[in-house]
Amino acid sequence: MENTDAIQDIETSNIQRIAIKNLVKSPLNVRKKEGSGIAELAALIASQGLIQNLVVTEQKKKNKKTGKFEVVAGGRRLAALNLLVA
């Protein structure tokens, strides 16, 4: 039996390039603390590139778009990327 809802979600998903300055960590992100190993992760990203995309949702305040995107999956990767551009 095929799960058509899951297939539809995949077919309609949208991969975009978003400037890092427009990314913020979402309060919905599972990890509330960045934890250790961010510098090591940054070095790995610098040498091998970003292997797994960040998952974001468009940030809205009072139902208005802010131009920012909240990272709901990939908070450590976001912290590492911020180290690389600092």
Protein traits:
86 residues, three-stranded mixed beta sheet
Distance between the termini: 49 Å
Mean pLDDT equals 86
The low-confidence runs, each spanning 5 or more residues with pLDDT under 50, are none
Shape estimate: globular
Number of strands: 3
- Percent of residues in beta strands: 15-25%
Radius of gyration: 15 Å
Number of DSSP helical runs: 3
Could you spell the SSE succession in H and E letters?
HEHEEH
Q: What is the name of the CATH topology of the domain at 27-85?
A: Conserved hypothetical protein from pyrococcus furiosus pfu- 392566-001, ParB domain
Helix proportion = 25-40%
- The SS-based structural class is alpha+beta
Which strand order do you get reading across the main beta sheet? 1-3-2
Main sheet summary = 3 strands, mixed
Named at the architecture level, the CATH assignment of the domain at 27-85 is Alpha-Beta Complex
Which CATH top level class of the domain at 27-85 fits?
Answer: Alpha Beta
Describe the protein.
The protein is an alpha+beta fold. The protein has a domain at 27-85: Conserved hypothetical protein from pyrococcus furiosus pfu- 392566-001, ParB domain. Helix content is 36%, strand content 23%. It contains three helices and three strands, in the order H-E-H-E-E-H. It has helices at 4-12, 38-48, 75-85; strands at 23-25, 55-61, 64-73. It has a three-stranded mixed sheet with strand order 1-3-2, with no helix packed on it. Strand 2 and strand 3 form a beta hairpin. Helix 2 (38-48) packs across helix 3. The longest helix is centred in the middle third of the chain and has 11 residues, at 38-48. The mean pLDDT is 86.
